[in-house]
C-alpha cells in the first residue's frame, strides 16, 4: 500500500491517497512544512507510484538551490514521453530558495506541463515561494513529527535516540540526524554551563575556539538549537534578537568563530 514506509502525517497521507484513487492528484503541487519532516520522502513515493517506477522520477535542488540550467535540463527531460510507465515526475527541493532565472524557467513548465507530467515543489514555507509559482500549485501542508515518531525513525536508521537530540530536533528527523552527526549538542550543553558559571570570561575563549571549528551549516544548527533552549525557558526578546542577528551574519558569510565572539560579547557584556 502506498506510503506504508512513511511515519506520521496521517491526515496528509490520507488526503493524497484519496486524490490518487480518484485520479485527481494535481500535476503541480507544493509541499510545505519544517525542514526534515519527510516532505521529499512522501513526494518521492507518491510520484514513483503515479508515474510507474523510480526511473520515471527525478529530483533537483536537494543539495543546493536549483539553477536555471538544471531547470532547463530537467524540463527538457520531462517533455520527452516516458519509454515505460504511465508518466514522469520531477521533485524540486528548496523551491523557496530559487533565484529569479530558475524560478522563471520553472514557471514556463508549470504553465503548460505535458499531460503525463507531475511536478512537486518542496519548501519550508509557502509565503517564501514566488506568488506566480505558488498560484499554479496545490498546496499540501506538513507539520512537525511527534517526538516518539522522530525517535522511532532514527532508531530504525541505526541511531540511538538521545533525549537531548529529540528535544532539540523539534519534530524534524533531518535535524535530529544532523545533531547526532555533529558536536552541536555537546556545545549547547557547554554553553548552558557557561551561563551558570561565575567565571564566564575564563570559559568563553576556549568555547569560541571550539565553535570556530564548526562549518557554517553546523553553526546555524547551533543557533537553531539554542533558540529551542531559550524558548523552553519562556523566551527572552534580547536573546532571540541576538540569535537572529547571529544567524543573519552567518548566512552572509561571517566566519563562525567571529560570529560567536560577537555573540558572547553582546550576550555577556564582556
Detailed description of the structure:
The protein is of the alpha/beta class. The protein folds into two domains: 10-141, P-loop containing nucleotide triphosphate hydrolases (Rossmann fold), CATH 3.40.50; 182-268. 55% of the residues lie in helices and 9% in strands. The protein has 13 helices and five strands. A five-stranded parallel β-sheet has the order 2-3-4-1-5, sandwiched between helices. Helix 4 (100-111) links the parallel strand 3 (88-92) and strand 4 (117-123). Helix 12 (237-251) packs antiparallel against helix 13. The mean pLDDT is 89.
Helix content: 40-55%
The structural class is alpha/beta
Tell me the number of helical segments per DSSP (H or I, 4 or more residues long). 13
Percent in strands: 5-15%
Strand order of the largest sheet: 2-3-4-1-5
Question: Radius of gyration, Cα only, in angstroms?
Answer: 21 Å
The number of domains is 2
Question: Which key terms come to mind for this protein?
Answer:
270 residues, alpha/beta, Rossmann fold, 5-stranded parallel sheet, 9% strand
Task: Give a short overview.
By secondary structure, the chain is an alpha/beta fold. The chain has helices spanning 10-22, 39-51, 68-78, 100-111, 131-134, 147-156, 163-169, 173-180, 184-196, 200-211, 216-232, 237-251, 256-268; strands at 28-32, 57-60, 88-92, 117-123, 138-141.
